[in-house]
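Human: If only I could read C-alpha cells as easily as an amino acid sequence. Take your time, and here it is.
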Amino acid sequence: MKHAAFATDTTAYMPAVPARISTAHLSALGLDLVNATQTQAIAALLAPGRRRAYFMNAHCCNIRRRDTAYAQAVATADMLLPDGIGVELAGRMTGKRLAANLNGTDLVPALLAQAASMGKSVYLFGGTPGTAQAAANRLVNTIPDLRIAGTRDGFAGAADTDAVIHDINDSGADIVLVALGVPMQELWLHANAHRIDAPLTLAVGALFDFLAGTVVRAPKAVRRARLEWVWRLAQEPRRMAKRYLAGNASFLAHAGIKALRHLPVADVQRRFLDVTVAGSALVLLSPLLALTALAIKADSRGPVLFSQTRVGRDGKEFRIFKFRSMTTDAETRRDALLASSDREGVCFKSRHDPRVTRVGRFIRRFSIDELPQILNVLRGEMAIVGPRPALPCEVAAYPARALGRLAVKPGITGVWQVSGRATIGFDQMVEMDLSYADSRTLMLDLILILKTFGAVTSGRGAY
C-alpha cells in the first residue's frame, strides 16, 4: 500500500542514541520492543536527545504486515512501546515476558506529569475539531503545572502540513502528541519529524478521545483483567468487530506460526505435550475439581484457591495457583514454624504442620492441591514436567549451584516429585533437577508423567 502524500527525504532527521533502556526482540512479531517499567520508559523518553516513539498493539502489527510504508515508518522509530495483551501473548509464545504493558492511555498522562515537573510543554495535534482542546483542558485540570503550547485538529487543521509544522515550531513545544489514527499518524511523523523542533514526538492514537471523554474507557477491573478490547468492542461493535474479532484471531495466528519457526523442534513438541495433557486434564478432572472446591469451602473459611509468588524459568516470578490446604493466616505463621522443618536445606516442609486443614491433609496426600497448576501450564508459566517451583525467599538463599535448576520451566511433576518428594533432602533434589535439565527429552517427560500416577497413589513424601 502506498502513501505518496507522505513521501519525503528523511535523511535530515538524525535519531538520538536512545537512552539506556532494555529492549526485547519478539521473534513472533519481528520487532524490538521496549522492555521496561512505566517509570523507566518515561525516563528514557524524556532523556536528552531527539526521539520518535510509537505504540505497537495487535492492530498495528496487522497493518504492518500488509502496509510497506507503515512498516518502514515503524522500522525507523527510535522507541516502540508494547501495548496490549496481544503483544504480551506474542512474547510469551517464544518465552519472552515484557516488563509492562506500556499503552499510551496510561503512559502519556504519567509522562506529561513528569514533563510538567521539568518545565516542559506539550502540543496536541489531531482528533476531530475541538477534541484536542478538550483533551488539553482535561490534562491541565489533572496536571496543573503542565504547559499547553498549542492544539490543532486533525481535519481542516491538518490540511496544510507546512502550516502545521510552522505552528508547532512557533509554539516552542518540547513534546508533540500526534493523534491522526494508525497508520496516518506514524506516516505523518515519519515524513515530518525531522522538520519539528520538539525533541520528543509520539503517535498516540485515540488518546485525545479518551481524555476529552468522547470515548469512555473501560472500568479498572476490566483493564486489570486485560479485557479492555472487549469493552471497546461492546461500545462500537460495527466499527471494532473487524479489528478485534477477525483482527485479533489473525494476529495470534500469524504470531504463533512465526514463533514456531523460531523454536527448536524439541521445544515445540514439549509445549504441544504440555497443552495437550493440561487441556485434557482440565476437562477430565473437572468433576474432581468441583468437588474439591466444595469440600474446601465447607471445611474452613477463606478462598478455595491459593495464589502465591514463585520463581520460574530464568528467575522470572509468576503467581502459582493451588487449592487452599492451609488456614488463611498460613503465610504469617510460616516464620515461627521454620525450626520445625522435617527437611534439610533451604525448603521448609513439616509433616505435622498445624496450619494444614482437615481437607488440606487429604488433598495433599493425593496431590489434589496441585491440580490448579494446570492453569499455570496453559499460561506457559509452568510445564507438566520440571523442577518444583521455588519461593523467592528460597531462591535468595540458594547456593550458586542450585540456581541451575532455574534453567527450565518449573513443573507440576518431575524427578523429585516421583522419587519421594518431601523425603528427599534439598541437596539431593538440586542434583536431580540439574540432571533433568541437562538430559531432558520428550521420552523422559512421558516416563515421568506415567510414574506420577504411582507416586500419587502411594502418597510417599506427600504432607
